[in-house]
Specification:
This protein has about 230 residues and is an alpha/beta fold. About 35% of the residues lie in helices and about 15% in strands.
């Protein structure tokens, strides 16, 4: 499946985090069929480097200026699309979750995307019609059903949704920002948090939607959180 932007058939430059497994890996591979993808993950052993796919091994909770320097060393100039996909999930009762665990969830799900957007803004602003896609959760959308035990995760995803809205307004003449609020997807992360739970959708299916939205969703939407789910949360 070859994915193209509706505005032009030229090759785009895309940066995606959490690309070593699950949804992120599928999105990176799919987009690399037509575009240049910088695929960031702590473990990139599942990714084969190619002309269009450049794995970058890096933990996004570390100093992000060093990550950008590594991207630039590998040829990064302008960024047409940034997909903040990396996520952390802990299933634990509210009274038992530690402050360190909450801090980790927020660092991966909110603080790292916040900082990476800041660091890559100069690269985004030099692109034509750039787009930032933040991967959220239906569990972070007001009024939806919630999983017990996901207070830290769901609240961090509510924050990334709000951040998307704030930045869309602040940079409305320069960069588009949207948030995709995903429902349960059958990934290793979900299995680790909910052993035995079977989600209604696998990463391959949702990856096609995310990849197309990354290329074209900002032509119609900006500052929106879009639920993409067959289940709650």
């Amino acid at each position: 499946m070859e994915l193209k932007s509706e505005t032009t058939s030229s090759r785009k430059t895309i940066v995606i985090t959490g690309a070593g497994r699950g949804i992120g890996r599928e999105v990176a591979i799919l987009l690399s069929k037509s575009h240049l993808v910088y695929a960031i993950s702590r473990d990139t052993s599942s990714l084969d480097s190619s002309e269009n796919l450049i794995p970058i091994t890096y933990d996004i909770t570390n100093r992000l200026k060093n990550l950008v320097a590594e991207l630039e060393k590998n040829g990064l100039k302008e960024v047409d699309c940034l997909i903040n996909n990396a996520g952390a999930l802990i299933n634990k009762p509210f009274e038992e979750i530690s402050s360190d665990e909450v801090a980790h969830i927020y660092k991966v799900n909110l603080i790292a995307p916040f900082g990476l957007i800041q660091c890559l803004l100069p690269h985004l602003k030099t692109a034509e019609n750039p787009h930032v896609v933040n991967i959220g959760s239906v569990g972070g959308v007001n009024g939806t059903s919630k999983f017990a035990g996901l207070s830290a995760y769901s609240s961090s995803k509510a924050a990334i949704s709000c951040l998307s809205e704030c930045l869309a307004e602040e940079y409305k003449n320069e960069v588009s920002f949207n948030c995709l609020a995903l429902g349960a997807v059958q990934t290793e992360m979900l299995e680790a948090a909910f052993p035995g739970y079977k989600a209604p959708m696998g990463p391959e299916k949702i990856a096609k939607y995310i990849a197309d939205f990354a290329l074209n969703g900002h032509l119609y939407l900006n500052g929106k959180t879009i639920p993409v789910s067959l289940s709650n949360p």
